[in-house]
């Protein structure tokens, strides 16, 4: 039996959205069940974010077509699939019996996962030799099996811990990352991310970030984009807009939101908001707000 594998578990559980739809990011489905059949699953387009754990060799995943590139579903790895990823699974060479363990979730972009899947496949693989994430995913399946809808907040807590490990992983190839308990998340990109999240409400620019990191603006921009796929200022704007969304849903006035999110004016906020989301703040508020019953 593979490390972290439990053949007794047969869980396919979805949480109700009632009163929880605005919680972002959020795990919506927890699944864990035995894989005993050698087969080729038809290729499909992912509609949501998905995180998949392999306790032992589960065959391969292919992208676009069966004759396309195959990636091993190796023991001790985590696969991250973004919305729009087109893939299928081939378990003909799997080390059976194996196990399917995965979460589907929303808000991966808000959580900071977009840079990991900024490639043609919309995919990333994480090597998890210490079983940090796999253990959390199995634990969530046990809670769902025992408590049903009552496991909602425990599942979200375990998901948040998994995000911590994912965001602190070390890049080792264009789409491969390593998660390790012996390597705390203190890489260059992570340190900048933390600085931006602490100071997004202030009037900061590239020079301020570079000064904090004790490097030049040009080197900072190059290194951060190499690690994350974003420029530091683009990421700063995204963080500001994330917070602006929550304030809009709370009914705050645009002028107040601009001041709280480091924007010089309502116009500045509205321009950045539309650049990031494709719609105006007013349109976002009207679409997202839930009417109160009479």
Terminal Cα separation, in Å? Answer: 57 Å
Describe the global form. Answer: globular
CATH homologous group name of the largest domain: Jelly Rolls
The CATH class of the largest domain is Mainly Beta
Structural features, described:
The protein is an alpha+beta fold. It folds into 2 domains: 11-178, Jelly Rolls; 188-288, Orthogonal Bundle (Arc Repressor Mutant, subunit A). Helix content is 37%, strand content 20%. It is built from 9 helices and 12 strands. It has helices spanning 132-147, 152-167, 188-199, 206-213, 217-228, 232-249, 254-260, 266-277, 281-288; strands spanning 11-14, 26-35, 44-45, 49-54, 60-63, 70-72, 77-81, 86-90, 98-106, 123-127, 170-171, 176-178. The strands form 2 sheets. It has an 8-stranded mixed sheet, covered by helices on one side. Strands 3-8-5-6 form a 4-stranded antiparallel sheet, with no helix packed on it. Strand 11 and strand 12 form a beta hairpin. Helix 3 packs across helix 6 and helix 6 (232-249) crosses helix 8 (266-277). The protein is globular and about 60 Å long. The N and C termini lie far apart (57 Å). Residues 1-5 and 290-294 have low confidence and may be disordered.
Name the features.
294 residues, alpha+beta, Jelly Rolls, Arc Repressor Mutant, subunit A, 2 domains, 8-stranded mixed beta sheet, 4-stranded antiparallel beta sheet, 20% strand, globular, disordered N terminus, disordered C terminus
């Amino acid at each position: 039996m593979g490390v972290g594998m439990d053949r007794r578990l047969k869980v396919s559980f979805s949480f109700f959205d009632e009163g929880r739809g605005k919680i972002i990011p959020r795990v919506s489905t927890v699944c864990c069940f035995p894989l005993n059949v050698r087969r080729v699953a038809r290729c499909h387009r992912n509609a949501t974010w998905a995180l998949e754990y392999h306790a032992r060799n589960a065959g391969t995943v292919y992208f676009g077509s069966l004759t396309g590139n195959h990636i091993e579903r190796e023991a001790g790895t985590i696969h991250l699939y973004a919305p729009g990823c087109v893939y299928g699974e081939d378990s003909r060479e799997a080390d059976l019996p194996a196990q399917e363990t995965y979460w589907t979730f929303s808000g991966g972009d808000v959580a900071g996962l977009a840079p990991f899947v900024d490639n043609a496949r919309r995919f990333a693989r994480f090597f998890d030799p210490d079983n940090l994430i796999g253990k959390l995913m199995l634990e969530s399946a046990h809670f769902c099996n025992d408590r049903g809808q009552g496991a909602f907040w425990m599942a979200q807590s375990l998901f948040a811990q998994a995000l911590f490990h994912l965001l602190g992983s070390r890049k080792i190839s264009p789409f491969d990352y390593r998660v390790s308990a012996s390597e705390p998340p203190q890489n260059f990109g992570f340190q900048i991310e933390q600085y931006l999240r602490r100071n997004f409400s202030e009037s900061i620019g590239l020079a301020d970030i570079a000064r904090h990191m004790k490097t030049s603006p040009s080197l900072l921009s190059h290194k951060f984009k190499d690690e994350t796929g974003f420029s530091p200022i683009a990421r700063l704007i995204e963080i500001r807009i994330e917070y602006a969304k929550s304030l809009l849903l709370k009914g705050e006035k645009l002028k107040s939101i601009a001041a709280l999110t480091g924007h010089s004016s309502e116009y500045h906020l509205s321009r950045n908001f539309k650049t990031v989301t494709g719609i105006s703040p007013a349109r976002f508020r009207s679409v997202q707000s839930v009417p109160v019953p009479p």
